[in-house]
Amino acid sequence: MFQFGALGDATPEEYRLGGPRVADLLARYGSPVRRWDPPAADGDSPEAEWGTDPTLLDDIRAFAGPRGLDAQLLRFDTPQRLSPAVADLYRTWYADRGLPTGRLLVESFLLLEPWWALRTGSVPYWTVFGTQAFRAHLEAYLDASAPYEEIRILLFNHGTESIGLAGAQDWRRTAARARKIGLLTGVDAAAYPRDFASFVRSHRALSTIRTRYPLPPSLDIASAAAALTGREEIVWRPMR
Predict the structure, then answer these.
(1) What's the pLDDT score for residue 45?
(2) By mean pLDDT, which of 75-84, 122-131, 136-145 is the weakest?
(3) Within 108-176, where are the H helices?
(4) How many Cα atoms within 13 Å fall on the side-chain side of residue 64?
(5) Contact at 8 Å (CB) between 141 and 125?
(6) Rounded to an integer, what distance in angstroms lies between the CA atom of residue 10 and that of residue 29?
(7) Under a CB-based contact definition with an 8 Å cutoff, are residues 160 and 168 in contact?
(8) With 45 labelled, which of 79, 136, 179, 201 sits at a CA distance of 20 to 30 A?
(9) What pLDDT, in 10s, does the model give residues 61-102?
(10) 234 has pLDDT over 80
């Protein structure tokens, strides 16, 4: 299959038919055209990065059954759908261990820091990309959550001012919702979204957080399942 476009703020219709935002993007980058001219699509398929082939489930059943393994199915419709649930799960987990729960770490695409999240007692919230739509999802989560004392935001730099991209100042406004510390971590706002040194700088910036906690034992699957299965948008059930 040939994939035209990728997950972001641009819609499938904009990729296929164009529109004001497509025309603006092409104009800004000096293109002589104002829309793309792709071959006609002969079908819709899940994007490889974000979906799964149902036949893989058959392989899992075939492997698990004879070995007495318990196979579970976790299903959600969009990549960022798990983020609020996972953030709430971590917040509860920290509270159960007697740790503060007021530090939020907003991760972006491949900028993930699971080890530093645990060591610094940071609640992880993952965003797909730095677009307005994914920022709006984060804002909705913050609206529905108890306030955070600290908010640190990692921004994935992908090199272009793409359709729907939220600027560094937009993300700064989100970080400013913190009661005490709100900042873009390891990001040169003036160079975003072409600040490629941030891939290294963001990791180093997190290592300067002084408050540290011991790594916890692994979270048991029953606790994770209990936190996630109570949400209508997430399915977690035994595979049949």
Answers:
(1) 77
(2) 75-84
(3) 114-119, 132-144, 168-175
(4) 14
(5) yes
(6) 16
(7) no
(8) 136
(9) 999 999 999 999 998 988 999 999 999 999 999 999 999 999
(10) yes
The pLDDT value given to residue 48: 73
Q: Residue 104 in contact with residue 123, Cβ under 8 Å?
A: yes
Helix or strand or coil: residue 151?
strand
1 or 222, higher pLDDT: 222
Report helix angle 83-96 to 221-228, nearest 10. Answer: 130
Q: What are the Cα distances from residue 186, in Å, to 21, 107, 114?
A: 30, 12, 16
- The confidence score (pLDDT) of residue 195 equals 96
Q: If residue 153 lies in a helix (H) or strand (E), which one and from where to where?
A: strand 150-153
| Spatial CB neighbours of 230, under 8 Å, sequence gap ≥ 6 | none
- Residue 114 CA from chain centroid, whole number: 13
Helices assigned H by DSSP within 109-236: 114-119, 132-144, 168-175, 198-206, 221-228
Q: How far is CA 66 from the centre of its chain?
A: 36
Contacts of 47 (CB under 8 A, 6+ apart): 3, 6, 7
104 forms beta bridges with: 123, 151
